[in-house]
Write a structure and sequence with these properties.
Blueprint (H helix, E strand, L loop, with lengths): L1 H23 L9 H14 L6 E2 L3 E2 L2 H31 L1
Antiparallel strand pairs: 1-2
Helix pairs in contact: 1-2, 1-3
Keywords: Cell membrane, Membrane, Olfaction, Receptor, Sensory transduction, Transducer, Transmembrane, Transmembrane helix
GO molecular function, one term: odorant binding
Subcellular location: Cell membrane
């Protein structure tokens, strides 16, 4: 479930960046209408501000966050497994 949110957040970020790139590559400065040029410039400026999904405004939902959560969860699992194995070894010695 977490992966779907994190991949959606990464997709949103890349798509927002590509909007500004697409407008810039469209030769917007050659338009004769100054109002259109101003609006397209506004789109380019707005696309430079990163849009992102957050979890409770505490951390971003992206693939880097997902990898960190998986890494931390696996570390906790390994610690719990080590404690469990150690407790089984202590029981066998008694």
């Amino acid at each position: 479930m977490l992966f779907s949110y994190c991949s959606g957040g990464a997709y949103l970020t890349t798509q927002c960046q590509s909007i500004g790139d697409a407008v810039f590559m469209s030769n917007w400065w050659m338009q004769t209408q100054s109002k259109l040029c101003k609006n397209l410039l506004l789109v380019i400026c707005r696309s430079q501000k990163m849009d992102r999904l957050t979890a409770g405004k505490m951390f971003d939902l992206n693939l880097k966050t997902f990898a960190g959560v998986i890494k931390t969860a696996f570390s906790f699992f390994m610690v719990i497994q080590a404690v469990y194995v150690k407790s089984l070894q202590n029981k066998q010695l008694k």
